[in-house]
Amino acid sequence: xxxxxxxxxxxxxxxxxxxxxxxxxxxxxxxxxxxxxxxxxxxxxxxxxxxxxxxxxxxxxxxxxxxxxxxxxxxxxxxxxxxxxxxxxxxxxxxxxxxxxxxxxxxxxxxxxxxxxxxxxxxxxxxxxxxxxxxxxxxxxxxxxxxxxxxxxxxxxxxxxxxxxxxxxxxxxxxxxxxxxxxxxxxxxxxxxxxxxxxxxxxxxxxxxxxxxxxxxxxxxxxxxxxxxxxxxxxxxxxxxxxxxxxxxxxxxxxxxxxxxxxxxxxxxxxxxxxxxxxxxxxxxxxx
Length: 288
Prior knowledge:
The protein is α/β, with parallel strands linked by helices. It contains 11 helices and 8 strands.
């Protein structure tokens, strides 16, 4: 990597942080494929929203599987859209994504995932408190991906996901860039997979004034959404300061990605973004 290299990622302890962002996450998929090809592993992984699913699939030993979710399955009517909303009450059919696909049609390798010796953290938001919850390796013990479902459950677009009597929304609501948690868990350095170029400034959430009405059952979540941009920028500045200190490497596109979070753009465009992520990760690895 540009600052501290890949000679040792375990001492000092180095964590991999993966930002969410819906379909923008195909950029991070390319980076993970690069890590797979060059046998780069970390002692600690933390992911938010769709990126947590990227990490789970990666740690289960899959190289191509995650890309299929972005490039192939997202075009299916069952995956997301008005039909899903009318049938399930959620724009994203999380049960189709994280059960039908993940457990049956394109199953994740739970044996390999459960055997992973490294730490895994999945960020979700407690709907009642608006605070982050961090699920660990034990989330997969019963061979299901409900924690991934919770981490990807966008407020307003989806009904909250229940786990052990608690309800959860997308992890990006409370902790979009979980650098504080990564450091609290003992990591001294970080490699971050980001979806936005340098200079990006996150604006306040669109429609924030209506959150109180739309999320009247979950006022703490509504408030967390209103404050989200502030927390995001604070964490981003911390990552950038660590980069200046030689304790972080940020893998991110040079320009804004030519797509939106919910895109169903042509396969060729998504493939281009995936290849871009691969190339940027390879450059960070300094390999030929």
